[in-house]
Write a structure and sequence with these properties.
Distance between the termini: 57 Å
Shape: extended
Largest sheet: 4 strands, antiparallel
Strand order of the largest sheet: 1-2-3-4
Mean pLDDT: 82
Helix content: 25-40%
Structural class: alpha+beta
Low-confidence stretches: 213-245
Amino acid sequence: MTDQHTALDAALEQVFQAARAHLATVKAAQGRIDDDDVWQAYVALNNASYAYDELLLDAFGEVTPWDVESIDPQEADERFGVGLGGADGTAPDDSYPQVVSVRQRRDYRVPSVAALTRIAEAARRQGSPSGVAEPVDSVGEAVLELLQAGDGSLGALDIPELEPLDGVVMVHEVTTALDPEAFDETDVDGPFQSVPGDQIVGRLDEHAYLPEESDSAATDTTTTSTTTTTTGVVGAGHPDRPDIR
């Protein structure tokens, strides 16, 4: 039993060390995407947590709250790649000359203004250091508040207080990246104007629908299906430009 305790203590110390190293690399990366050091520290923390969990289970039949599986660092690197240089850092530079522009529009129906306002105000209070915030005055303001709380992701709007309708996603290749500061706040068309040389790569239509009553007793559940359409070249001033997210 003493040997098991020693092994557990050592495994727990490895978790502590891996967690500290992971935090240090995250701080050093300062938000860089696909940082190699952060990935390696993540794998080390994951595997240290997994090893401790396994030892705890073997010794006492107990588990931790961590639902993790062991990661083979080499296999993970080969499968997913690490950083711009690939798994081993020797991949050649293959940067793409065009800018990829993803433009999405999704419409919603609001079953209850009061319910939507309540959840938006709760999100606003949660984001306030003092826990006190100004009331939400409109439906549009409520939606913006939820988007801001969700870091701009449309997933933040997947809530019962908003009923999704149809939507569309379009992928373009453009010659120049978007500069929001180049357009006035009242210019709703400028950011979406296409210019010669821009090209539409593909379009994905989203069709929201309610299941037939015979298919499900839960008539309040809304699901979404998607279908794809054709691709083509977009000229300047293309009329079908959707909202961008």
